User: Which sequence fits this backbone?
């Protein structure tokens, strides 16, 4: 019998930052959208906004264009600061393909 | 996309609602957003990461047993494919002995971190490079080039974080300058972008780079990378500039682009998404001047394309890498051409008319670009394919034959250079190669 022992080539992963905690429920919350305006986001995100507003009366969903849109800007520190300053409880980001 | 956020230090999972690609196309049926709305709501309220806060630890060694050496080798290869660590070609199992042998190519500590590989975020070390090089059939004297290439790849300026996952099928191009190229049998001449048993270094180094992109970076087709075609990704592109045939007065690429002193062993990393052979030579009774000028026009014609991914490198990167054989470079230099004047010519004659841009829908891409320089370029008619002639990369490489040149079309936000660091015992490694592979 021949034995071969070798390294796992996939290495390690460091998790330095936890994902944001989830909200306990959507009722009464303030929700924002960050859109890259790609991949039919201009149709899908407004539909999702309407669905959320219908299913959770009293919820506040900011307009799709409340924050800067486009791949070039949605990942910037400036956009992140605007999102934080808006006081939203959660954010939905779209679209990727 | 799996692992889309891991490279940022977050866990390699995220609250996502995924749909078939058809829903993202113009005119699509988007009613699944309504039928699966609960998944969005759960993502905001109930979703939890499956990863602990400190992430995955270091993986243990893997053992396989076989009835014979061949059987064990086959089982190891099957296991690596089943774990999605392979590329479909036979791999050398990275045993402790082989990896330690490869590590003889550096004086750096094996645990020295080089960064995290996007998008998956795999922790990348000198040892990671040695493991990949062992799998790719490499040798210790190749390791300094691979380490320098990985340092450049992981430099944010390279744009690799985007290109690893993007659909545009970018592949890294590693240009090596200095004496290390010939020393480690890296091809600069005939067939320098393909397989060559006489000069095998480029294939192993480029394959190891690809394995790192996949195994640490998570760039698995259709999972971690959306590259439609993935061309030239078995070995990427790794070659040396043919400095022995550089005309007098023509500086090596590493000196021109990155300021390394001539004679410095260095790498330069860019990204490309296309590779085109250009028959540049004349066919009849052209004078040398006509032959050179017609060839220049023909090359510019190949470059005059609406390469919208190339906008990523419009300001600071490159529209592509033009490879000229030494014999052509010598002839052109004799007629007064320099690398700089070639760049100027190509920049001027590869411009695209505004009318052609409009009919191809290019202004929309130009207008949404992150770069102000790109957005403002829309006013230029004819539109230059890059902001400055200096962005063109001209290298002397390829077989000593005058007929063809080669154009690696750019998709390269930056062009990153690194000096290559050699261990004190490098000459002994070259002597070992001489013993193992025969004389150069």
Assistant:
């Amino acid at each position: 019998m021949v034995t071969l022992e070798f390294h796992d080539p996939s290495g390690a992963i460091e998790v330095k930052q936890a994902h944001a905690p989830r909200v306990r429920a959507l009722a009464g919350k303030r929700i924002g959208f960050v859109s890259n305006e790609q991949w039919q986001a201009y149709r899908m995100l407004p539909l999702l906004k309407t669905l959320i507003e219908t299913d959770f009366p009293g919820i506040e969903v900011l307009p799709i264009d409340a924050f800067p849109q486009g791949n070039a800007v949605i990942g910037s520190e400036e956009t992140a600061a605007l999102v934080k300053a808006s006081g939203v409880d959660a954010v939905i980001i779209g679209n990727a393909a | 996309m799996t692992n889309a956020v891991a490279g940022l230090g977050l866990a390699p999972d995220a609250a996502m609602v995924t749909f078939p690609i058809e829903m993202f196309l113009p005119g699509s049926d988007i009613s699944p957003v309504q039928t699966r709305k609960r998944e969005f709501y759960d993502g905001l309220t109930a979703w939890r990461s499956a990863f602990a806060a400190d992430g995955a630890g270091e993986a243990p060694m893997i053992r396989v047993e076989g009835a014979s050496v061949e059987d064990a080798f086959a089982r190891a290869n099957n296991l690596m494919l089943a774990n999605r660590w392979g590329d479909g070609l036979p791999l050398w199992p990275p045993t402790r002995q082989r990896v330690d042998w490869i590590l003889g190519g550096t004086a750096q500590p094996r645990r020295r971190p080089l960064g995290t590989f996007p998008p998956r975020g795999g922790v990348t070390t000198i040892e990671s490079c040695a493991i990949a090089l062992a799998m790719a059939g490499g040798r210790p004297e190749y390791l300094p080039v691979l380490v320098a290439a990985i340092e450049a790849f992981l430099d944010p300026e390279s744009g690799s974080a985007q290109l690893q996952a993007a659909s545009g099928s970018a592949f890294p191009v590693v240009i090596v300058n200095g004496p290390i190229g010939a020393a480690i049998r890296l091809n600069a001449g005939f067939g320098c972008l393909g397989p060559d048993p006489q000069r095998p270094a480029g294939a192993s180094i480029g394959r190891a780079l690809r394995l790192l992109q996949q195994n640490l970076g998570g760039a698995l087709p259709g999972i971690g990378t959306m590259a439609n075609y993935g061309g030239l990704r078995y070995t990427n592109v790794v070659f040396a500039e043919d400095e022995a045939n550089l005309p007098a007065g023509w500086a090596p690429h590493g000196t021109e682009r990155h300021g390394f002193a001539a004679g410095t062993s260095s790498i330069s990393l860019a990204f490309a998404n296309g590779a085109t052979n250009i028959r540049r030579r004349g066919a009849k009774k052209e004078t040398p001047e006509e032959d050179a000028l017609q060839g220049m026009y023909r090359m510019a014609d190949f470059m005059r394309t609406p390469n919208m991914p190339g906008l990523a490198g419009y300001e600071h990167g490159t529209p592509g890498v033009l490879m000229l054989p030494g014999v052509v470079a010598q002839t052109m230099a004799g007629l007064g051409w320099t690398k700089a004047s070639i760049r100027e010519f190509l920049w001027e004659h590869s411009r695209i008319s505004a009318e052609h841009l409009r009919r191809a829908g290019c202004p929309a891409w130009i207008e949404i670009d992150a770069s102000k320089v790109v957005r403002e370029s829309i006013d230029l008619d004819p539109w230059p394919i890059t902001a400055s002639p200096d962005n063109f990369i001209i290298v002397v490489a390829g077989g000593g034959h005058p007929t063809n040149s080669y154009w690696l079309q750019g998709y390269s936000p930056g062009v990153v250079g690194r000096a290559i660091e050699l261990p004190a015992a490098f000459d002994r490694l070259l002597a070992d190669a001489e013993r193992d592979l025969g004389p150069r």
